[in-house]
Amino acid sequence: MRDKKPDIFWVVAVVVALGIASTTLMGEPTPQMSPQQAGIMVR
Questions:
Q1: What is the pLDDT of residue 18?
Q2: Which of 6, 14, 25, 32 lies 20 to 30 Å from 40, alpha-carbon distance?
Q3: How far apart are the first and last CA of the chain?
Q4: How far apart are CA 24 and CA 16, in angstroms?
Q5: Is the CB of residue 17 less than 8 Å from the CB of residue 10?
Q6: Which pLDDT score is estimated for 36?
Q7: What are phi and psi of 21, to 5 degrees?
Q8: 37 is in which domain, residue-wise?
């Protein structure tokens, strides 16, 4: 039982990290990344 709790915590952390990464890649980048992506898109 004690070994399963950390595993669930890591799984949740990974899922959250992947969710944030997917949102940034899909079209909701952070304010700092938006100008860079805009410049790349224009070029």
A1: 83
A2: 14
A3: 54
A4: 12
A5: no
A6: 56
A7: -60, -45
A8: 4-42
The pair of three-digit structure tokens given for residue 16, joined into one six-digit string:
């959250």
Instruction: Count CB atoms within 10 A of the CB of residue 37.
Output: 13
Number of structural domains (the chain) is: 1
How far is C-alpha 2 from the geometric centre of its chain's CA atoms?
Answer: 28
The pLDDT assigned to 12 comes to 87
What HEC string does 1-25 produce?
A: CCCHHHHHHHHHHHHHHHHHHHHHH
Number of residues that make up the chain: 43
